[in-house]
Amino acid sequence: MINFLVSRLISAIIVIFGVSVLVFLLIHMVPGDPVEVMLGETSLAADREALRHALGLDLPIHIQLWSYLSGLLRFDLGISLYSRQPISELLLERIPATLMLALAGLLIAMLIAFPLGIIAALRKDTAVDSGAMVFAMLGISIPNFWMGPILIMVFSLWLGWLPVSGKTGIASLVLPALTLGTAMAAILSRMVRMTLLEQLGEDYVRTARAKGLPWSTIVIKHAMKNAMLPVITLLGLQLGALLAGAVITEIVFSWPGIGQLIIESIHRRDYPVVQACVLLISLVYVMVNTLTDLCYAWFDPRIRLSEK
Amino acid sequence: MRSWLATAILVLWALMALGGTWIPLSPYGIDLTHILTPPEAESLLGYDDLGRPLLDRLVIGARYSALVAVVVVSISLLLGTFIGAMSAYVGGWIDHVTVRIIDIFLAFPGILLAIALAGLMGPGIDNVIIALSIVGWVGFARLSRAQVLALKDREHVQAAIALGAGRLRIVLRHLLPLIAAPLIVEATFAIAGIVIAEAGLSFLGLGIQPPTPSWGSMIREGTRYMLVSPHMVLVPGVALMLVVLAVNMMGDRLRDRLDVKSARMRQHS
Description:
The complex is a heterodimer. Chain A is built from 13 helices and no strands. Chain A has helices at 2-29, 34-39, 45-55, 61-73, 87-122, 127-141, 144-158, 170-200, 203-210, 215-252, 258-267, 271-299, 301-304. Chain A is flat and about 85 Å long. By secondary structure, chain B is mainly α. Chain B has helices spanning 3-19, 54-90, 92-106, 112-121, 125-151, 155-162, 167-203, 215-222, 231-258. In chain B, helix 2 (54-90) runs antiparallel to helix 7 (167-203) and helix 7 (167-203) runs parallel beside helix 8 (215-222). The two termini of chain B are 23 Å apart. Mean pLDDT of chain B is 84; it is low at 262-269. Chains A and B meet through helix 1, helix 6, helix 7, helix 8 and helix 10 of A and helix 3, helix 4, helix 7, helix 8 and helix 9 of B.
């Protein structure tokens, strides 16, 4: 267990380092001059040089990389080229909105996927099962940026129940969270159905039936408990899709989170902010996946108690 | 949905993508008398906010979505499979480095990296293809690496080594044919993923640029007129959904038929 823990943490640190360097290199190798964009094409060469010097963009790339990496260790992400605010402040302003959206989406996904997946598995090969799987297939095939407008049309414009966009309170969270949650629910419900079906075919289920346990106890207490492990792993992996989906969903609903900040900064050519946002989302993803792996190991006694 | 329906949708998509070149279309023809006309008998799918026929724009959009999907999946498949298979077969430090690189690329969730790359490289179809290929090769590399690792010690490979076959020959002639089935299934799902990704980038304004129609940018234009002209959002959206649905169903069927273990379920897409 200790070995597993240490090796998992070391590989996470290597990946985090690699991600940080890769983000820096990609953003600095991409063509396009931020100084020119900031000052306009008619600016004087001397002014450009002065600004480039002030921002440290005239230094050799390895020195820029070094100051970037040492800044990261101090949680210093640099300064926005556009608003001149420290980037860490900008991120802190936006994190709560994205976190709220992602958690609400996750909650909706679980609320839909678990009942749907369980019912589909228990009623395998019936109309209920195929209906649930058609829903799942639809959910996988409808992208966020179409689901969102459709929900806005139905619930905001036609029925008038919910606000169109913006962040004005709990009602404004419903549609973005639904948009984000249904896509994930589709994948998750397929996974719940599949793992539960696998578990229901195991010997221990037959034993439990033979000793006369009620079917509901067997499903909930025995089979679901074992089916949870692969489902937890998938939840961790799907968080990546959820975060990327949040970027698009935030644009659809003008939700003031990290995703909106990324797209705004891309249009302003504000490289340091784009760099910081991509880095933040990727690091959250790496950390959640590492935690998922550790939880997996902890919940599975075959790994927790092994001497290796 | 029946499989003939999926096939029909895919054939229609291909016909639109290929045939659009020969049919006289006016995707850029502005007609002020038709602004926001909803679908009716004489205007099949209606007109957009500049009076341009949606059907014509849909056909041109089909061409771009198919073009991007085919090119990106081809590049990713060739590059990813080559890197993954060679790395697994050669082994040693090369394989260690490859695994690290794959891990680092997989640490970027979904199309986030493509959004950042396409955004910073600037819009345009070339940049969309480059950005999506940079992200796309990883899945194929990981899959082919795992498959080759499981096969490289088989007897027929040892026999080939004994006969003096080189590494490249063994990988190309003795290993790749055996891992073709899972790669084909993965490539099918990848097409669905790339179609969505291209539309997503164009929706964000980072992909194919107006006035050139893309299904994604058509949805984006439609969102401004949702109250008066829902057809502007519905038409490209339904097309996109049907194509992705059909490709995904094809992938499911292929997976069942080729009996590929559902390795994909563990993978984020």
